[in-house]
Design a protein that fits this description.
Blueprint lengths: L1 E13 L2 E13 L2 E6 L8 E4 L3 E5 L1 E6 L4 H4 L19 H13 L2 H17 L2 E8 L11 H13 L2 E8 L2 E5 L5 E5 L5 H14 L7 E7 L7 H14 L2 E6 L3 H11 L3 H7 L7 E5 L14 H10 L2 E4 L1 H6 L7 H6 L3 E4 L8 H16 L7 H15 L16 E5 L11 H7 L6 E6 L2 E5 L2 E2 L4 H15 L6
Helix pairs in contact: 3-4, 3-15, 12-13, 13-14
The chain binds zinc ion.
Zinc ion binds next to loops.
Length: about 475
């Protein structure tokens, strides 16, 4: 049962880097790639013609939110509704708009949102997603059922999904005077923590292993040190990843410093979280200035030697009027970096482009954030963060998670360098075919595993009841 993709420009993984092979081939048998190169002489049962296509590994979208994101459209851009807080450009939406939107939703609305989100992820070439799942602040309960429904939807859609239901001791919101207030969750979040651990244990590995689970203590500033230490202990016992939000705002950085007399990285080390199985979502404010130049030598050593990963969200940062400072500095410090979309659009091409361009702006140089490096963050960078040597790359033994990107279009022609094309010109709409575990889930730009018209009309329906409930 060998399928051969031929006549494509193949992005092959050779000697630890992505290289382009003109007129190359990829052969796979069921869910595994068996050969990548210039030709293949073995027997084949199926052929996919890759003429006018780049055959590339599917993206690893290492940090996103499937369930509330669609409802945040119109509220996270241009500081809509919060323009009276001009000095909070980095956090007004975070502390004011997001809690208001989440509280306006309900479980059915969240599941409807997730189905559309999954369709968009697949359509734009993300074959692996890391979902910071449904939060207990929604509707005030700790019910895990909506997370299970989203996990089922992801499994049925055939996407590779890492899902981690969030738990936390506090929830935050902005008060009318602009101050951020932290309130206690019921049982300090411990009841929810127990539910999340059970979910992580019982759902991992479903859907032929495509569904994976992890522990997601919401944010660094919504958990106390004990909850973070308990998280590390549980992750070690279960053998799962940990992913939390940290480095999201200057307010958060200062709060950690005030409360614990430690910097963010020191605090993450002190609570035992750092490690090769640990991802920091955002990671943009790790110093008072937001610049990696101001990291102390002990912080650099802690982050680098622990092999923790930072899941950057370049578009989310730029949209708030800032820029990561910078992926070039982090690269020189040898930090592990990957990339996610966080909210909308779930388009990793957009994310790569913003990552490259914003780094050039910050560093005031075009000699940084070269396309192959940025592309690696979106592919192997994410796979390495997940501890998966079989994802984010096309090589024998890797999973057959493959996308075909159109280059037979006016905007692509001529393609002198596929990496430059993918980072600086392509968008998710150029993705033609997507395979996960060797199964075709997108063909001719159509998602085959989700009834997209029905999902869109359902989400439009629920949005009608959610939007009037949003009170900023
Ligand atoms: Zn996030």
């Amino acid at each position: 049962m060998t399928t051969l993709i031929r006549n494509a420009t193949v992005i092959a993984w050779q000697d630890g880097q992505h290289v382009a092979i003109e007129n190359g081939v990829v052969a796979f048998d069921k869910d595994r790639i068996i050969h990548v190169g210039e030709s293949y002489d073995g027997p084949v049962t199926d052929i996919i013609d890759g003429t006018g296509r780049i055959a590339a590994p599917g993206f690893v979208n290492a940090h996103l939110h499937l369930t509330d994101t669609p409802f945040t459209k119109g509220y996270l851009e241009d500081n809509v509704g919060v323009i009276d807080r001009p000095n909070q450009e980095y956090s007004a939406n975070l502390y004011r708009a997001l809690p208001a939107i989440r509280n306006a939703t309900d479980p059915d609305a969240q599941v409807a949102a997730a189905v559309c989100a999954i369709a968009e992820c697949l359509r734009t070439g993300s074959t692996t997603i890391m979902e910071m799942a449904y939060d207990e602040e929604i509707m005030g309960g700790g019910d895990i059922e909506p997370v299970e429904r989203v996990a089922l939807a992801a499994g049925e859609a055939g996407i590779r999904c890492y899902t981690g239901p969030r738990y936390r001791k506090y929830f935050y919101h902005e008060q009318p005077n602009g101050q951020i207030r932290y309130d206690h969750n019921p049982s300090d979040g411990r009841d929810r923590f127990e539910l999340c651990k059970k979910f992580v244990r019982t759902w991992d590995g479903r859907f032929e292993g495509r569904l994976k689970t992890f522990l997601a203590p919401g944010q660094i500033d919504t958990c106390d040190p004990d909850l973070l230490r308990e998280t590390r202990k549980a992750a070690d016992e279960i053998g799962c990843l940990i992913h939390l939000h940290a480095g999201q705002s200057i307010q958060e950085y200062r709060l950690i410093k005030q409360s614990h007399r430690l910097t963010t990285i020191e605090y993450l080390a002190d609570t035992g979280l750092l490690g090769p199985d640990f991802l920091i979502g955002h990671g943009q404010w790790l110093t008072e200035t937001g610049s990696a130049n101001d990291l102390k030598s002990n912080e650099i050593e802690l982050l680098r030697s622990s092999e923790s990963s930072i899941a950057h969200l370049p578009w989310c940062k730029v949209r708030r009027g800032g820029a990561i400072d910078s992926i070039e500095k982090y690269r020189k410090l040898q930090f592990r970096q990957c990339m996610g979309t966080d909210t909308f659009p779930y388009d990793m091409f957009n994310e790569m482009r913003i990552a490259a361009v914003s780094c050039k702006l910050v560093e005031k140089s075009a000699n940084v954030a070269f396309a192959p490096f940025v592309y690696s963050m979106a592919t192997v960078g994410g796979a390495d963060a997940l501890g998966r040597q079989d994802l984010g790359r096309l090589s024998a033994g890797a999973k057959a998670d493959i996308i075909l990107i159109r280059t037979d279009t006016p905007k692509a022609t001529p393609v002198y360098d596929p990496f430059l094309f993918m980072v600086y010109t392509a968008t998710g709409d150029d993705v033609d075919t997507v395979l996960v575990d060797g199964r075709t889930v997108v063909k001719g730009g159509e998602v085959l595993t989700i009834n997209v018209p029905s999902a869109v009309s359902k989400l439009n329906e629920v949005a009608k009841r959610v939007r009037p409930r949003i009170v900023l």
